[in-house]
């Protein structure tokens, strides 16, 4: 490969050093075509277990399997060249013990080519994060609103509104940082608390529904582009309405098929033509 053609992928140490610097740009991706479109513009592609809802129609992330994450992680890896690639560990693939988490994470990294894994949880997962990082598996943490624990959190609501909850989230962020996570996703946390957490830990914090003071931001690509219309969280900004455009395109296609206007002569192969004309 020529020097001009080679593109160095953003590495975990690069992102670990972005505290207080240029904000880290992160979006989720689940497929090769979407990864190709996003890759030139982001620092980090996250293959999130949110795919359970946006791709598979599940009510939560709890039904997502390790095999699903591996399949989609490998697809995103094939579609990206420069962004750091992180894959979520799904529910029940890491909580049992550090050893179980290692086996799951090792499979993900070996079978997808990802640079790191992400797991949810704070103080209770610090031992596991340290276990993984000591064995060469970079870990991105995730505290605050943790979707895999939604049944114990009374649904998808902002976290940190009362002093006890705020204290617990601060302790979670500190524990995950101390355990060696290179970045921490802080989700659904009230703004003053999120800003305080960003200032209190040396690990870069990537926000989603948190604070503009975070060291980076992440959104689910289907939310950001309007492809997922089941609901719109408060923290989502629609940068496009592709769902509406897809619906319009489907309606136009259906109308032309029913009226026998498609396919037209220019879409057909005639005798004596080759496959490209």
Structure overview:
- Helix 4 packs parallel to helix 5 (98-112).
- An 8-stranded parallel β-barrel has the order 1-2-3-4-5-6-7-8, surrounded by 5 helices.
- It has one domain: TIM Barrel, CATH 3.20.20.
- It is of the alpha/beta class.
- Helix 7 links the parallel strand 5 (139-144) and strand 6.
- The protein has helices at 12-16, 32-38, 51-54, 66-79, 98-112, 126-134, 163-179, 191-200, 221-224, 242-258; strands spanning 24-28, 44-47, 84-88, 116-118, 139-144, 183-187, 205-208, 216-219.
- The two termini are 33 Å apart.
- The protein is 37% helix and 13% strand.
- The model has no long low-confidence stretch (mean pLDDT 94).
List keywords for this structure.
8-stranded parallel β-barrel, TIM Barrel, 277 residues
**Class by alpha and beta content:** alpha/beta
Number of domains: 1
Strand order of the largest sheet: 1-2-3-4-5-6-7-8
The largest pleated sheet is described as: 8 strands, parallel, barrel
Distance between the termini: 33 Å
Instruction: Using the 3D structure, state the CATH architecture.
Output: Alpha-Beta Barrel
Q: Name the average pLDDT.
A: 94
Helical proportion? 25-40%
Secondary-structure element pattern, one letter each: HEHEHHEHEHEHEHEEHH
Spell out the blueprint of helices and strands.
Blueprint: H1 12-16, E1 24-28, H2 32-38, E2 44-47, H3 51-54, H4 66-79, E3 84-88, H5 98-112, E4 116-118, H6 126-134, E5 139-144, H7 163-179, E6 183-187, H8 191-200, E7 205-208, E8 216-219, H9 221-224, H10 242-258
Parallel strand pairs: 1-2, 1-8, 2-3, 3-4, 4-5, 5-6, 6-7, 7-8
